[in-house]
Amino acid sequence: MLVLARRVNERIVVGGGIVVTVLEIGKGQVRLGIEAPRDCRILRGELIVAVQDENRAAVAGADAADALSGLFKIAPTAPERT
Amino acid sequence: MTAMTKELTAATIRVKTLHKGEVEVTEDQLITFVTPLLGFEALKRFLIYQTNTGPLYWLQSVEDEKAAFCLLAPFSAGLDPDLEITPADVIDISAGGSGDIDVYTVMVLDKDPAQIRTNLRAPILVGRTSGKAKQVVLDDQRLPIRFFLKDMRAV
After folding, report:
1. Does residue B75 contact residue B103 with C-beta atoms inside 8 Å?
2. What mean pLDDT value characterizes chain B?
3. Residue A79 placed within a domain
4. What is the number of structural domains in chain B?
5. Are residues A47 and A33 in the same domain?
6. Would A14 be classed as within a structural domain?
7. Are residues A2 and A35 in the same domain?
8. Is A16 a member of any domain?
9. Do A10 and A27 lie in a common domain?
10. Do the Cβ atoms of B123 and B84 come closer than 8 Å?
11. A1 with A34, same domain?
12. Residue B91 CA from chain centroid, whole number
């Protein structure tokens, strides 16, 4: 990890296309301005963690199909055994 | 063994699935995540299959039989979320355009029907012809991570 100190109005340029400007430094909080190509999604880190957690909660057990009964008028199907 | 059966043997893969036991599939029936399913970074190859007709699918890891998920095809289910797929997404999964992409959302199943939900914020995109997939996290606060299906009529 690269660690660097920046003052207000100073910038960091990432990969040529992304510019991060320190706009304001408050108590325990920093306000950043980010310029990036439209294609480049900028997300808060917590959102990624929330999606990881939701994916982990989504792991389906063997009885998962039972939970589907009634959804979209689908009857539960017994697992086929081979 | 003839040359032809040899070729078939080489091309098929056995996958242990949650609902269909062990199935034999060909390489081109599998999908490959080019950027990982979040929280499951070690897993790359999956099989998508259905046990019913309808908008629900199963996403089964080839590498870990316990990693199985229920997916929803939101548009077939009557949901019409506004999902912004970027040109970079299309390139990432080697799709010919947004019409060449299948969209799924991850379901969380629960014994309590009120808890059954799907993640509209982070859909899975699959290139129909390439078989390449990625889960995108969209920068749109109107899309809930937990969209409860009991609220579907509200959409």
Report:
1. yes
2. 90
3. no
4. 1
5. no
6. yes
7. yes
8. yes
9. yes
10. no
11. yes
12. 18
| Residue-range definition of the domain harbouring residue B110 | 3-154
d(CA A61, CA B58): 12
- Tokens 């917590």 sit on residue: A46
C-alpha span between B11 and B4 (Å, rounded): 11
Based on the fold, state whether residues A2 and A32 are members of the same structural domain.
yes
- Do A31 and A45 lie in one domain? The reply is no
Residue showing tokens 């199909």: A65
Cα–Cα distances in Å, from B17 out to A78, A81, B13?
14, 10, 12
Q: Which residue has the tokens 């012809």?
A: B129
CATH number at residue B144: 2.30.290.10
Subunit contact A72:B38, Cβ cutoff 8 A: no
User: Could you tell me how many residues make up chain A?
Assistant: 82
Q: Does the beta carbon of A80 lie under 8 angstroms from any beta carbon of chain B?
A: yes
Contact of B152 with chain A, judged by CB distance below 8 Å, is answered with no
Tell me the pLDDT tens digit for each residue of B37-92.
999 999 999 999 998 878 999 999 999 999 999 999 999 988 989 999 999 999 99
User: A51–B107: do the CB atoms touch at under 8 Å?
Assistant: no
Q: If you count them, how many residues does chain B have?
A: 155
Residue A49 within a domain: yes
A13 touches chain B (CB under 8 A): no
| Cα R_g (chain B), whole angstroms | 17
pTM check: above 0.80: yes
Are A67 and B87 within 8 A, CB to CB?
no
